[in-house]
Each structure stands twice: as C-alpha cells, then as structure tokens.
Amino acid sequence: MSLPYHYTIQEASVLTSIETSTGETLSEEQLSVLLENPLFALEVKEALEEDGEVDIENGILKDSSFINTPMDCVLTSLIEDNNNLWKRTSEAFRPNDSPFNIRFSTYNNPIDTSSARTGIPDENGLITIRFHLANISSGGIDIATDIFHETFHAELHRIHFSNNSPPNSLSQQQFQWFEKMWRFYSDQNSDQNYVATASEHYFMAQYLINPISRGLREFDSNSQTLEHYKYPSWSGLESVGIRSGYISRTEINNLSNLYSIVVNDSNTPPCN
Ligand SMILES: [Zn+2]
Q1: Considering Cα of 15, then 16, then 17, then 22, what sign does the dihedral take?
Q2: How confident is the model at residue 29 (pLDDT cuts 50, 70, 90)?
Q3: Which protein residues have a CB closer than 5 Å to ligand 1 (ion)?
Q4: Are 129 and 103 in contact (CB under 8 A)?
C-alpha cells in the first residue's frame, strides 16, 4: 500500500491497523474514503478492534453484539436488495456525503420498554442506533419498521445539526416547521435526546408514514397494497398522530386489521 506523500505517520498507522484487523488490503476506493475522512477512519479502527464489522463505502459500523442478530439479517437484506427507502434514508451517512455515520448496536435495560433508541451524534458525528435485546420485534416486517424508524431519527438528527445540509435536504417549509418543534421542546426540557425524539416523532407522523409504508411494501415484495403496510409505520407514533389529528383510534384499528392480512398471507418476507 503506498500512501500519498502528505500523509502523516499517525494517520498511516490507523490505516495499517485497519488492514491488520481485516486481514486484507484496502481497495483504492476504501483507502481514499478513509484518507478524506480521518475521524471516520478512527471509528472504523475502533470498531474492528472490538470485533465489529464495517461497511466503509456506506459509512455503516456494526458492533459485535449486533452481528448475526435478526436485525442484522434485515439490515443486510435491505442493503443487498437495494431497498429504495433504505438507500435514500441512509444515503447521507456515506463518508463522502456528510460528516455523519451510523453505528448499529444493542442494549439491555429491564425498565426500558422501547424496542430501539437512536442517540444524538457524538463529537465525531457518529450516531448510534441501539436495539433493545429484550424487546426485539418478531418478524422481518416489524424489524424493518424499527430499522426505518430509527434511521429516520438519525437522518433527522443530521438535518437539525447540519442546518438542513444536502443530500436530501427538507423543503424550507418542512425544515422551518421541524426547527420550530425543536425550539418548542427545548424550552420545556434540557435533555437533547428528549427534544430530538419528541420533535422528530411529530415530523414522522406528519410526513413519513407513506414513505415508511412504501419501504415496507417493497421489503415484502409488494405483496399487498400500500394501505396494508401503514399500521406498522404508525408504531411508536400513534399517540402523536392522534393528538395532532392526523389519524384516529378507529383508523388505526382498521389499519391493524389490514396489516393482519400481510402477516397471514402466503408471501414470506426476508428474515421471518
Ligand atoms: Zn422514535
């Protein structure tokens, strides 16, 4: 491996240690991604030292606790099948597209009823999505729902902290509305994770039910209509949706009946 002349010893040692950890030589493309993104290179090194996996081009890190879980199976399937929603939602996390990257991990906390949590970015721009091992959803579609929901949290974190930078910037109207929600919750609570989650749930309930439903339908080989996939898309967003008048309890119940057709039809989604 030949390094460009301006490369410092310290950066070179990061790359050498990445090559040692993976046991293979980095491709020209991987090398140039890491050269241009030294903070990401450090995260990659750390992940590999802890027996994690890295997808350098897509800016995705996996903790060892995440590898080979049902969530890993669904994530791999979304990536390999080129799911359109996954591609768009995760696009910004490729190292050359923004300074933000994603790490997938797991946790266990008996008093936490969530199925997953997405923290705000650390000082290197790394956003960690953690799945709660005790509350893992069952079935490929429910897990795909969690992955889409949490990746949208990560993307909306990025939108807020990057002041709506491309790719996939929100329209000015959407961005201003989102920032207004953020300020509203900041005035009530100093916990950034609380503020982010609350404002993002309002945004998702208003704008992202259809995109998530389309992503789930594609994951399920388009076996039913879009309407059939809206129930899981509302999961975690029902109370916000009802409070805001976007949906009623009766409509949610009707969507739940439609979704049971998806669960019981002859088509089996990946990782079921
Ligand atoms: Zn959420």
Answers
A1: positive
A2: confident
A3: 236
A4: yes
CA of 153 to the centre of ligand 1 (A): 7
Query: Left if phi > 0, otherwise alpha if psi is -120 to 50, otherwise beta: which for 48?
Result: alpha
pLDDT of 11: 65
**pLDDT value at 145 more than 90:** yes
Q: Residue 100's closest CA among 46, 37, 18? A: 37
Q: For residue 142, how far is its CA from the centre of ligand 1 (angstroms)?
A: 14
Rounded CA-CA distance 45/27 in Å is: 16
For 104, the enclosing helix (H) or strand (E) is strand 101-107
Ligand 1 centroid to residue 221 C-alpha, Å: 25
Q: How far apart are CA 145 and CA 238, in angstroms?
A: 14
Round to the nearest angstrom and report the end-to-end CA distance of the chain: 43
Beta bridge partners, 126, equal 101
Q: Among 22-31, 215-224, 260-269, whose mean pLDDT is lowest?
A: 22-31
CB 212 within 8 A of CB 145: yes
Higher pLDDT, 20 or 225: 225
Domain locations in the chain? 39-264
| DSSP state letter for 167 | S
